[in-house]
């Protein structure tokens, strides 16, 4: 927010909307990770429930995420004091919502997912004398174990991505809080901003490498362009 001359560019009422939008933008990505974790948690733990496999559940998760973002950012609207001043409580509020809350909930849900997957993979199916039943049960067990391995791989990937994001953005929010008390050199601010952008770039590259279908599609397009 240091790059905005709010008192010059905006009227006081517009400053409220600018800070409101800033808080939403600051917590949108962490809450997107949190929404994905909630979706995966319900899909894995309650995999026998058809509702959690429908697109309607995906739509509910996405809609709920944005509703929560707009609601929990309302303190930036209903506040007293200098409207074009980025107060200390606002900086702490954004930092807590973007780092502390998503990290805590993500950690708890990921631990519960890991425990569920590990316990279900160790579960032994009952044996019977009927060969056909044993064959079906064995096939179902193998399919479930394969699904569990995919779930764990996806869990590791999303955890890694979330940690990279927090590593890059937490220092930025922390510097904003510290800058309220002391004057921080603009070079240091630029360095932390660069770190956050590099983390975003690394996440994009990592997702591109992991998404084999997208990688093959883009490589084929590049080959077609080179041929012409």
TrEMBL record:
Topology term for the membrane: Multi-pass membrane protein
Organism superkingdom: Eukaryota
Record domain G-protein coupled receptors family 1 profile: where: 1-210
InterPro entries: GPCR_Rhodpsn, GPCR_Rhodpsn_7TM
Record carries keyword Membrane: yes
Primary location recorded for the protein, binned into one broad class: membrane
Entry keyword annotation includes Transmembrane: yes
Subcellular location: Cell membrane
Record field: transmembrane: 6-36, 57-78, 90-117, 159-182, 188-209
Pfam family, one: 7tm_1
GO cellular component terms given for this protein: plasma membrane
Entry keywords, A to Z: Cell membrane, G-protein coupled receptor, Membrane, Receptor, Transducer, Transmembrane, Transmembrane helix
GO molecular function term, any single one: G protein-coupled receptor activity
Protein name, per record: G-protein coupled receptors family 1 profile domain-containing protein
Source lineage: Eukaryota, Metazoa, Spiralia, Gnathifera, Rotifera
């Amino acid at each position: 927010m240091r790059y905005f001359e709010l008192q010059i560019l905006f009227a006081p009422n517009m400053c409220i909307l600018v800070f409101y939008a800033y808080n939403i933008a600051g917590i949108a990505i962490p809450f997107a990770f949190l929404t994905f974790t909630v979706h995966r948690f319900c899909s894995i733990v309650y995999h026998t429930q058809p509702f959690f496999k429908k697109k309607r559940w995906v739509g509910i998760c996405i809609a709920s995420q944005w509703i929560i973002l707009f609601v929990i950012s309302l303190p930036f609207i209903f506040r007293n004091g200098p409207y074009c001043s980025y107060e200390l409580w606002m900086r702490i509020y954004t930092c807590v919502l973007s780092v502390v809350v998503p990290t805590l909930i993500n950690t708890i849900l990921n631990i519960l997912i890991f425990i569920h997957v590990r316990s279900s993979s160790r579960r032994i199916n009952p044996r019977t004398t009927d060969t056909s039943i044993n064959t079906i049960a064995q096939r179902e067990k193998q399919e479930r174990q394969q699904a569990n391995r995919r779930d764990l791989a996806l869990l590791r990937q999303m955890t890694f991505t979330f940690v990279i994001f927090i590593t890059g953005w937490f220092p930025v929010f922390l510097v904003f809080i510290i800058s309220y008390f002391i004057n921080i050199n603009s070079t240091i601010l630029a360095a932390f901003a660069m770190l956050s952008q590099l983390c975003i770039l690394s996440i994009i590259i990592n997702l591109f490498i992991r998404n084999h279908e997208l990688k093959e599609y883009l490589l084929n397009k590049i080959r077609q362009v080179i041929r012409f």
